[in-house]
Design goal:
Length: 239
């Protein structure tokens, strides 16, 4: 079995008194892509916030390549090679495209892949290269998503967490983003891809975890889910 890149064990997470994650455990193997699915409010983003140290869990543990990072501050988790592409992009709209990349630059952990720099990000996303001097707030939704991905890559992570990168994008642009994610997987990155639409992840994911009301409802390989046997509508609605 591959080494674990990221493991959550028995996570109990709260926002104030609201108990949002209950006994959440899952494992991302090194070099694999895990699709994290669930309806609105299922707890997907909360899992990402717990994973990167933005929301310390009340119980349970988080491990990155076997080292416990539970309750470490976000910068310490980032220093261990975990980067998040947050839901809604959260790029710096009043900085230029290039400045957005440079604020995140870090030598990081890149091993098999040549290190990510502004130049290698621009080579991957030529449309960002053309707009490198423009304010990021003027980019289209798809370009902003590419910039958010590029910014995360600038930290040269070992584990990349992507929270609904397809949200609000036209189908053609979603296809481009998915092609990018496929390339990143081929480069050896370990990836969690959060999505609501299972169709987008089944062909790209190795493993699937489905959250339902803050609990893990299904853990499976993508292969097994594709061949049926699990009633996805029960957990995800109709697609
Ligand atoms: N900052 C917050 N304070 C209080 N409650 C929150 C906060 N963020 C999320 N919640 C609640 O926690 C639950 C899980 O939210 P979360 O954002 O993790 O869901 P999600 O699966 O990412 O949903 P979506 O697909 O809509 O992004 C929801 O009931 C949500 O209302
Ligand atoms: Mg979310």
């Amino acid at each position: 079995m591959a080494n674990s890149a990221l493991e959550l064990h028995g996570i109990e997470a709260y926002y104030g008194d609201s108990h949002v994650l209950q006994q959440v455990s899952f494992r991302l193997g090194e070099g694999r892509l895990l699709g994290l699915l669930g309806r609105n409010g299922a707890g997907k983003s909360t899992c990402m916030n717990v994973s990167v140290g933005l929301l310390p869990p009340r119980a349970g543990s988080v491990e990155v390549f076997g080292a416990t990072v539970t309750r470490l501050p976000p910068e310490s988790v980032a220093a261990r090679g975990v980067a998040l592409v947050p839901q809604g992009r959260r790029i710096f709209k009043s900085l230029t495209v290039r400045e957005n990349l440079m604020v995140a630059a870090h030598a990081g952990f890149a091993t098999s892949h040549e290190p990510w720099t502004a130049d290698t990000v621009f080579a991957m996303f030529p449309r960002l290269a053309e707009r490198r001097g423009q304010l990021a707030g003027y980019l289209s939704g798809g370009e902003q998503q590419m910039l958010a991905i590029g910014r995360a890559l600038m930290a040269n992570p070992r584990v990349l967490l992507m929270d609904e990168p397809s949200e609000g994008l036209a189908p053609q642009v979603v296809a481009e983003v998915m092609a990018t994610i496929r390339k990143l997987k081929e480069s050896g990155l370990s990836i969690v891809l959060v999505e609501q639409n299972p169709k987008l992840v089944f062909d790209i994911a190795d493993d699937i975890v489905i959250l339902n009301s803050g609990r893990v409802a299904v853990v499976s390989t993508a292969e097994q889910l594709k061949s049926g046997g699990v009633d996805l509508r029960q957990h995800l609605g109709v697609f």
